[in-house]
Batch of 4 targets.
Target 1
Amino acid sequence: MEWNIQTLSLLSIPLISAIVGWATNYLAVKMMFYPIEFVGIRPIFGWQGLIPAKRRQMAEIEVELVLGKLLSVEELANRLDPDALTEAIERRLKQVVRKVINDVMTESAPQLWAALPVQGKNLVYQRIENDIPNVVHKMVEDFQNNVNEILDIKELVVEQLVNSPELINEIFLTAGEKEFPFIVRSGFYFGFLFGLPTMVLWHFFQSWWILPLGGLLVGYATNWIAIKIIFEPKNPIRLGPVTLQGMFLKRQKEVSEVYSAIIEQKLITPRNITHIILHGSGSAQLLELIELHVNDAIERYVAVAQPYFALGVGSDNYHRMKSLAVKQIFENSDKYLLYAYDYANSALRIGEDLSERMQALSAVEFEGVLRPAYQQDEWKLIIVGAILGGLAGLAQLYLVFS
């Protein structure tokens, strides 16, 4: 009976090592993503998921290594057809322009506007509305020529990922949906294998330090191997009928498609592009562009409708009228640009092109899609696994063999 108990206790070593390997790898994966915000007492004690904690650096790396090289802002802007864009927003823009005309004229030339009969006001509306395609066409061309000053793609990506840490988690979890479960499962298998020599050593020597050391090595090794096997070897190595390559790299086509779909649907969207153009660091340049074309259009309208219009309303009011028109057209941009989102999605083709170009990357370049920003902190996961493994070994020593 005593022999059976001793045998079972001995056989429990690789089994417990397997459980330790599974548990430490499971925890390592969770610690990469959670908690999203720091929990604990800074800077003494606490934890934040590696990826949420590094989201700013990761966003910058994503721009530099992926988006900056594979899709240029100029290329995206040049895909917009001014005529198609005008057609998409024209109906709503006409409604906005009518309100802008009423507001501007009521404020800058109230008597003149009030005295103008309905037929006269309709002629003003019609004249301006007929010129909208021409104005929008010129503005789109100027936007395309000055897109780098108006749209900062790095600012867009960094702002979205910093403000939405759950989004960067989604990108990594979805792109690595097969790799991360494998990391957890592999901990069980490798833990069992590493537990076998610990079992043999304990059978012959039974020194108190063997089990804690064995647990520490299991926790360390299973985490280290699991992380390495995702990305190593980078290039395929053929051993007879078997081809060895990092799991993530082997799925380059599938990962590219998933990654690109998220980038297109949730990150570099027409809505986010519009937001950063109107409210980001390039908004002043956009305002200047609008001011140039709106002022030019007003000068033409006044010249055609009434050569002495500016004299009639007064110089100050005339300049104020132009300033108000520019301000209102800019501030109401969201109201008409949202009608361009569907057209912009089909025209920009971000997901389709990004996926195709990511698939053409070398293995080394492709590794840079997900790994670099948190690579410097991988050691933390490995050390945590080692510590937990050592503690599990101590627990096994006192609970099973004491």
Note: The mean pLDDT is 83.
Target 2
Amino acid sequence: MTRLPWVLRGVITAVAALLTVTAASATAPAVPDPRAPGDFVALSAVDPTIIQEIRYFTPHDFVGARVDGYRQPMCILTRPAAQALHRAQRELLRKGYTLKVYDCYRPQRAVDHFVRWARDLDDQAMKGEFYPRVDKTRLFDDGYIAAKSGHSRGSTMDLTIVRLPARPTHPYVPGQPLVPCYAPQDERFPDNSVDMGTGFDCFDTLAHTLDPRIQGRQRANRLLLKSTLENLGFVNLAEEWWHFTYQPEPYPDTYFDFPVSQASLTGRN
């Protein structure tokens, strides 16, 4: 039997080792996504009557694209927050209204997406609607974007009120002309909610819940949402009329990163 030259034997050995590593890498299981703790629930399982319009699953948000971590258009919350929201819904239904949520639990990877977007000063595609009067270089300093969000703790939600019977929301078409979020209701994006003076996620001081320039029916609508929720243990963020946190929070110091999907809630230990 002819002996292979030692150089050729070395090459063959190296190739075999490389193929072994490649095969092992190909068969290695992917790192599974984290799962939600057992006391996180889908809002629809607690109250299916609350309308859900999860904006970050769509391109109609200040980023202009679906946000990382939103795999399904669903609201996930800690059970106490969802149950308190159900009690608020019962009160509003008696008055001829329904709640509508725009966002609930938000994974940390989504917050990281916001931070990357905010640092990309060349991406101003959605400025005309969501931050017409704010220079993008100011988003961190002015508090519109931060590296951590209370939403990631599971008891914070963004929401509004819709008068019954609820009309469907007008579909957003990417590339359509953008109108400032603080424009009169009949001019800005045709959301089916009551008039709150600005649209959702409006980066403007007019979105401050008690801004004195908001009067009449717009102020009454904000106060209806605020008083209904505060009477049930929610706390409003003064800079955003749509932002509420249920307290006491079950996870006041934990920022979760499981995806927004039914799979995050199933198969839990």
Note: Strands lie at 40-42, 51-52, 76-78, 97-103, 156-163, 234-236, 243-246.
Target 3
Amino acid sequence: MNRRLRLGMVGGGQGAFIGAVHRMASRLDDHYELLAAALSGDPDRAAASAAELRLPRSYSDYREMARLEAARPDGIEVVAIVTPNHLHSPVATAFLEAGIHVICDKPLALTLGEGQALAALAKRQQRLFAVTHTYSGYPMVRHARALVAAGELGELRYVQVEYLQDWLADPLEASGHRQAAWRTDPTRAGRAGCLGDIGTHAWQLAAFVSGQLPESLSAELHTFVPGRRVDDHVQVWMRYPNGARGALIASQVASGEENRLVLRLYGSRASLVFSQEEPNQLWFTPLAGQAQRLTRGRSMSPAAIHATRVPAGHPEGYLEAFAQLYTDAALRIHAMQAGVPPPPETDSLPCVEEGVNGMRFIDAVLDSHRAGGVWIPL
């Protein structure tokens, strides 16, 4: 921990949204130094993007980057993959085979088979494979998870999660908008549009906090914008092994909504409500009791304290949550390099297994929808 990890990046060049977020997140807690990147497959754009970032080494071919960086004594130790979805699996495979740790954007891959192959390869290579499910980095999300694990809600009865946006309510992809273009292109985004883009976030958040995965689901996908080739709305019913029920809604055509990710958990003794647009608070309401507004920085669990940087009343937000995943990944990588167990506070880091669960969720939703909403086992 006395030095920064040498970081590389694939994707995230000029005009990209999530690449800049990853770079800011990696710098926030000062655990990484970005030294090399393949920011674009186009050599000129890759070079121009790297020059803007003052990177020492620029590539336009990620395979060449993996090979040459692995051969350098000062080569990168971990790579961030911030490409469109169709490149996640081939890029991750190239770097894992080169012995380089991976931090990858979600969804993990295009298919469940690809995801399972990546999990097996990471295990075989003994390399960390983190998946950036951002919202699990919030202190109050981690506090909620600790409350559920401690039995404060009693027996879980109902899980409700919604993720609503409106940015694709119009055919933005037809206007040349780069983000909309690839996210609505099944060859680059995969078969799942809204489902893969934000539905997987809702799925992971519910599982992360509740500590449970459904045993079956019934789903419907819909495309509201004429001519769009992927879904822009999804609704899912869920059944849990303990008898609990759940509902998940994700929509990118919900007019008036910005980034409304809300999780509600109802148990036999109490309920929890977390809203991503107000991430520094968590509502805890005991049965027949007063609603309690829990705030970041006060009366927090060790897991929440680990993910907190500034005093109570000083808001932390999206970039800090993202940075927490990078910090947890750095702690784990340093532990692996030292041959010691990872710090227990990094157990909250979403890794490749959660990515595989997300791919299994996508497959089950697609299968259920195609069959008219029948219940599909997970």
Note: The first strand starts at residue 5 and ends at 10.
Target 4
Amino acid sequence: MTTDALRPDRRLFLAAGASLAMAGPASARVADPGDYEAHLDLAFSRAGPPALAGMVVGRSGASWIGVRGVRRLGAPEPVTVDDRWHVGSNTKAMTAALFARAVQSGATAWDLPLARAFPDLTVHPRWAAATLDDLMRHRAGLVDASVMGQSWLMTARSDPRSLVEQRTAIAAAALAAPPAGNPGAFAYGNANYVLAGAALERITGRPWEEQMAADLFQPLGLASAGFGAPADPAPWGHGSRGGVSTPIPPGPFGDNPAALGPAGTAHMSMADYGRFLAVWLDGGRSWLTGASLARLTTPFAGPGAAYGYGWGVLSHPLGGRDRRPGPLLTHDGSNTYWYLSAALLPERGLAVVAASNDAGRGSQAVGDLIQRLLRAAAG
């Protein structure tokens, strides 16, 4: 895997926002599932990825799921609606939600300074003004290359230390030196969420993976959820070079190093991902409070990308005075072998998802399908 795995998601929320703008004024309607199937067929046939999945989600969870293609090139097994998909950087919204849960319990605060979040580490004085929510909004001044560059990527999978110890080492290296970036300016990076996960490990006394399983997967009923590339039987990710896709078996080299977990290693079925998204469509489902939802979906009030906590936010996606659809939340995720995009209209109780097991041709198919589904579902 190359350092592409550590670059920000390129499309983030621009494509989805553009698709909604093209959709025109929103009106309540229920699309024929056959329309969704036709859009899936078209996006799949045009790009030709190994596999492509689409989903429409309402307040009670998935209302339609469709799949096309095979689990891996060179093998006959077709993908199924129950297969698990790598969600990549869409894991960030899950880590931010875990932090919100810790705030709800009184265990921490959104504006906790990094020096207090990491009392066991040496923190350079220039981090004095930085807080945990600065990390989760990518505005702390942290730069991936300074702590998780090529040398880290080449050695992290063979690191014998526990994942908690590995994330602590990343946090220690980042905070011992002054910020490599510009504090206050938006700079998307995976290291921000690795440090947020390391802070959560200190706040709760549990590894991030245990927190995800006990505090997110279990209460939301995400029985298929796990970490890394899903093990067989499941789709395989595919690397792409020169337009040629190659299946990559699950295992340590089928994903980013596991220490990157809080920034992007979760996998789950489409239906289970729909259950997670329904939290944002149904007032938190008693799992998140209204105050937490508002915080997680409110972008920084300043220049740069309109980014909340694991979500890009377009306040008025139709532009002008037409505010009927409400805010659009969206994010993409990729580990260079998989690609997934989600777009949510919480005030409409609507979300759409597209995913592929190929970050090359699959990313093209995902971009095409997410726009088609959003236009069809939004009316």
Note: The CA atoms of residues 61 and 275 lie 5 Å apart.
